Amino acid sequence: MVALSPLLLGLVLFQGIRIKAAPIAPVDSEHLSGVGRFWHVSDLHLDPTYHVTDVRTDVCSSSKGFPALNPGIFGDYLCDSPYQLILSAFQHMKTLAPQPEFMIWTGDSPPHVPAGKLSTDLVIQVMRNMTQTIREYFPDIRVYPALGNHDYWPQDQLPTSTNEIYQAAARLWEPWLKPEALDTLREGGFYSQLVQPKLRLVGLNTILYYSPNKVTMNMSDPAGQFQWLQNILETSAQNMEKVIVIGHVPVGYLPYVKNTTAIREVYHERLVKIFRDYCAIISGHFYGHTHRDSIMVLLDELGMPVNSMFVTPAVTPIKSFSEPYSNNPAFRMYLYDRQDYGMLDIWQYYMNLTEANEEKRADWKLEYKMTEAFRLKDIQPHSLFKLARSFEIDQSIEFQKYFQHYMVSYDDGIICDGECKLAQHVSKTTALTNFNLVAALPG
Ligand SMILES: *[C@@H]1O[C@H](CO)[C@@H](O)[C@H](O)[C@H]1NC(C)=O
Ligand SMILES: *[C@@H]1O[C@H](CO)[C@@H](O)[C@H](O)[C@H]1NC(C)=O
Ligand SMILES: *[C@@H]1O[C@H](CO)[C@@H](O)[C@H](O)[C@H]1NC(C)=O
Ligand SMILES: *[C@@H]1O[C@H](CO)[C@@H](O)[C@H](O)[C@H]1NC(C)=O
Ligand SMILES: [Zn+2]
Ligand SMILES: [Zn+2]
Prior knowledge:
Elements: E1 7-8, E2 35-41, H1 83-95, E3 102-105, H2 120-137, E4 142-145, H3 164-172, H4 179-188, E5 191-196, E6 199-203, H5 225-238, E7 242-246, H6 265-277, E8 282-287, E9 294-299, E10 305-311, E11 330-337, E12 343-351, H7 353-359, E13 364-369, H8 370-373, H9 381-391, H10 397-406, H11 418-423, H12 428-440
Parallel strand pairs: 2-3, 3-4, 6-7, 7-8, 8-10
Antiparallel strand pairs: 1-9, 2-11, 5-6, 9-10, 11-12, 12-13
Helix pairs in contact: 2-3, 3-4
Bound molecules: 2-acetamido-2-deoxy-beta-D-glucopyranose (4 copies) and zinc ion (ZN) (2 copies).
């Protein structure tokens, strides 16, 4: 069995001890002009069948026969997104100033419905719909997409060579991506492109590594993506570029099950090794898929924090019938330093779905700014690591805040303790285990 690597987990933050009198770096004051911004949206999961009706079981196919809880025009916690919800998110994004320079969009457009209700054509139709909708709202910025496990039929089974869906994606995303990027997208579902003169984006197809993908089982390098990634990062290092890595399924441990990675362990080890080798040029990692807001810190072989990894919450509010909580609809903006591409902050926006439905008005609000919420200097690996360590304390107030954000303020009455907290990998034991594993890995 491969030793699991050393991702420190779901993080963490500060313990409100008020030690520092020094003001937090003023992201939005005099340094404003040196601050770049980009959007991150993920897991739109459009459900075209969504409609409000008194027959609760008929509201949406994505509730899979369960009665919707409290359906309104913007959706329901047992359903995927109505088109109205998605439009309202984009509409609100457009009103914010200053507008970010680009957008990352980490996949999963189709609804959570049984395979029999979808087809290759339907999946492509939904991807086209979402692509056109985004272009309509944001005609002037480039969007960098990544394929999700639902962006295929049957879901999760993304292949290692060209197929109808990779080809459709390459056609749909032609306005945003350059010919070289479209070439690898068409073949393997991944690409890389310069975003700014010294900033490269790497869009990975992590579904090739996703545990439920049977197509890639036993392959050592599905679609040659590892070799490709290594080559890209090596070239970037030589060209003194900084890199942002995006993908749908995240590396690291899942935040709701103990000691479990979303991608197969053997691939996880390989990916983490590559990321560690090139951590010096990687500005950050940006994923989706879990639908919840979480943070991870990649540690090097010595247990030092080397990269920040962010999982953005979903636009869809869906949960399964038996889950105790969900997430409110969300999108976010990242702030970064234009000089060195260091990550400065997250501005997280959300819609209180219950309230929006009651008022029949889409009231998107700022949920939190990461540096303010946790009194951080920035969101770079050292800052997040320190925060993560503070979460380890029993009944850490900061961890409770982190967990409220994890659910996108779904319900502040839900406390995460015991097994829940263990699964978040912030307990002392888990953290120590991770450290041990890190230290035990061959250099
Ligand atoms: C996307 O789908 C929605 C819901 O089915 C439909 O109302 C809308 O017109 C479609 N938009 C585009 C751009 O295809
Ligand atoms: C993968 O390898 C295992 C063990 O060698 C074998 O039993 C299994 O059939 C293989 N699966 C595929 C899809 O090739
Ligand atoms: C975590 O899982 C791995 C592989 O499944 C296993 O080898 C390891 O012992 C587990 N560690 C803990 C602390 O449960
Ligand atoms: C969301 O709105 C509901 C209904 O107005 C309210 O009870 C709840 O407290 C709100 N949640 C948050 C986090 O503001
Ligand atoms: Zn999803
Ligand atoms: Zn997914």
